[in-house]
Amino acid sequence: MPLAILLAIAATQALRTPIGWTAQGPDRAVISPADPGRGELRELSVPGIRIDPQVLVAALSAGGNPAVLLACDADGTVTLDLGQGLIARARALPGGAGITWYLVQATRAASAQLDADALLAAVMPRAGHDLLTGAAVEVLPAGADGSLWDPAGSNQPAAPVLAGPWGGAGEPTPPAWAPQRALVGIWSGGAGGTWAEEQMLLRLDVDGHLRIEEQGPEGTRVTEGTWGVQADLLRFAPLTAAPVVSSFSVDTQSLTFVWQGRTVTLLRRR
Fold first, then answer.
1. How far apart, in whole angstroms, are the C-alpha atoms of residue 169 and residue 235?
2. Are the beta carbons of 95 and 50 closer than 8 angstroms?
3. pLDDT for the residue numbered 96
4. CATH, domain range 181-268
5. What residues pair up with 65 in beta bridges, in sequence order?
6. Which of 68, 171, 187, 236 has the fewest CB atoms within 10 Å, counting from its CB?
7. pTM here?
């Protein structure tokens, strides 16, 4: 299995190299070629149709980086220990025959000078912006909080906590958004759109994985990401868009929430 994973790692598209960085091939860029530990961007493709951080860990380990998963945020970003004093932040996009992971890695000392999440947002293709893949992008230095993303908590509160902007400090923070068992399952029904035939299939997994399939006259649109509940609010965090937060109601047979400005009621399939 590790060998198969290793052979499946490959560059997908040319990595968007930020201004001030140096490309080291189609799937890698560094701040300083003489000192890669100051900051390195990587793009890897692994097999599968679901985003699974453990597959990334296995692929990195098979490729010579003994990776350890330290945290998995509610927005899908993971923190990794790569050994030899290196840490990494990574996010993934599905597409084609596999999953493409984007990583920012650096030494622990150098990580304080990088806003890893801002770098990931800059180099990852976004819906409607795929034509910019080859364009130059500029990333500002890390801000005071060292993060571009919402505070997301962790799906693994017992995992070790890194010191510094990539991992926080102090005791692990309980997850702000967490899956609720009453919502876990597959839901489907009319999406409440303009056309009567518009349908939605919603899959909420117990591990926080989200999949939405919307079918209408223009075809099928698939949204992957993570989901969680806090009090009476339901949060969907697509991988390529801003999180959506809505009030919701659920019983044994139906789930009601607001999606894209309209109220949707879906029936439980299983």
1. 25
2. no
3. 65
4. 2.40.128.280
5. none
6. 171
7. 0.49
